[in-house]
Protein: Delta(1)-pyrroline-2-carboxylate/Delta(1)-piperideine-2-carboxylate reductase
Amino acid sequence: MQQAHTGARTGDRIAFDPLVELLTAILVRHGANRHVAGIIARNCAMCERDGCTSHGIFRMAGYVSSLDCGWVDGTAVPVIEDAAPAYCRVDAKNGFAQPALELARKTAVEKARHTGLAAIAIRGSHHLSALWPDVEPFAGDGLIAFSVVNSFRCTVPHGGDSPLFGTNPVAFAVPRQGEEPLVFDMATSAIPNGDVQIAARAGQQLPGGVAVDANGAPTTDPDAVLNGGALLTFGGHKGSALSMMVELLAAGLTGGHFSHEFDWSGHDGAQTPHTGQFVLLIDPQHAGGRPFGDRVETLIKDMRFAGVQRLPADRRYRNRRRAEQQGIHIGVEERARLDALLEG
Amino acid sequence: MQQAHTGARTGDRIAFDPLVELLTAILVRHGANRHVAGIIARNCAMCERDGCTSHGIFRMAGYVSSLDCGWVDGTAVPVIEDAAPAYCRVDAKNGFAQPALELARKTAVEKARHTGLAAIAIRGSHHLSALWPDVEPFAGDGLIAFSVVNSFRCTVPHGGDSPLFGTNPVAFAVPRQGEEPLVFDMATSAIPNGDVQIAARAGQQLPGGVAVDANGAPTTDPDAVLNGGALLTFGGHKGSALSMMVELLAAGLTGGHFSHEFDWSGHDGAQTPHTGQFVLLIDPQHAGGRPFGDRVETLIKDMRFAGVQRLPADRRYRNRRRAEQQGIHIGVEERARLDALLEG
Structure:
């Protein structure tokens, strides 16, 4: 199995497909079946490729330790339930969320094209990645996609005194004419957890006003946040209300766990939140009137006229194009960590 | 017509129904038909009753001047189009958004119960009120409701140098067991426009970091905002991304105007934004598993345990109960303004 990506080992840049192969091999080595491993590896490689490093190969250790300790089932076979003309549910069966979403993709797209809307309600799922890889492909198919996923207890609700919510991101994607989709993906916590972990590893401080320590006092020390501290919501009570909405849709509605409900204390190494995910699709073909694609271009043109230099996702697409030309940079230490995961 | 609410003129408190009658009479006096006037009057009285004063009787002058100058059609008959099993469109025909939503209510609720979801896409509509009155009744019917409405060019996109977006609120409501729905309604601008107008009238300063003057410099002077200045989005780039989402759903998808597209310069007195509105309904009966209502109560209980004293909408419900017992307080000056609108 190691032979398959020997070619990728020369230098510090690796092409996308060999990286997916390497990550797939690591996940298979740690108990995932080839189908599941391939989906997670591709997702992870996409994040690395697009410069979304907090959800790229940095996460592989967490995937591996979660598999090793039996917290997440890398061989789970998700089950889809066709609940109503515009609504399907998926029980991920304690597996990853992405294969559950993949299972529902075709059914949901057909529902959206027929009824105008579709919901995919995923429960019993583990999601450790960014959310934009889940919505962007639907926009590539001409649909509007909105998704929320809850995570693990690490964020204090506005007005509260202890953590309850997860980082609880919201992602949204719309198709564009002849361009990559317009996509945003934002944590409703003031910063994402991945940034705290990366700052801790790099020995850097956090910005002010985003986190508290174990005593509830404001802190900029990432280690203080990771050791019993917590994040705050972005934008005060407004971000907190959105985070609550994420809990209600991703868990309350799907049948998954709220971010504070699951107990991974008995699984040393567990890092994948065991919660739920909600995806909404809208087919703009039913909108009538002027084509939606024209309207998106009008708004973007006028945003640029109002001085907006960079759209959400612009940086990811720029990184993507560079990676397609030059390969994906993997540092020597990162590469050594991946090799260790492949052996160990 | 004035006789009908003579009883309400004693003292400075008025019951809900007489207030609705008074406001209806004012709107009819200025050209709305009785059906439209009744819906807007009731909406406006609900805001006043619940202590949402920036959208209460304070707005009557704006409704009246917009009718008087022919900017909004108070006799418009909205037209509903049944576009797909989960999707309906309403052309408000240059009338108010609330009668258009009322027209679609029954159809949309039936769609949601059957397909699991429903969209109401309203275009050619004028919305000058809060958004919670639009979503709360759906939650009262056991549905989850989400709505966005765009407004008028007054908010600078993050990274931009001039206003483009509206205040662009997002509202969300879920049913509760034996309690009033859990509802939030938030501007994606750092503060709502109504608060700027109220601060200007009261001679008060705005908080820092929410607005800029006509030169793009930070200001706390509400008059500087109203005279060529602009609002900022809440939470920086995140609030801005949400505001962009509101434009894309409420206008781009519905066929309404973006906040910066309509020109009311030829209509002196025009105050009602001529845009669109998007409403999404989800029927949690299709969720399967544990009843959604139980899950909502669990989350609320645990939020209280995490120290959250006040839920979104708690203050509105408290004001509502007080108004039901004691009537709605109307100051002498406010009453004089209403009486002048009724006469003039």
Chain B touches chain A through 71 residues (CB under 8 Å). The domain at 2-68+317-343 of chain B is CATH 1.10.1530.10 (Hypothetical Oxidoreductase Yiak; Chain: A, domain 1). Residues 97-115 of chain B form the longest helix (19 residues). The two ends of chain B are 14 Å apart (CA to CA).
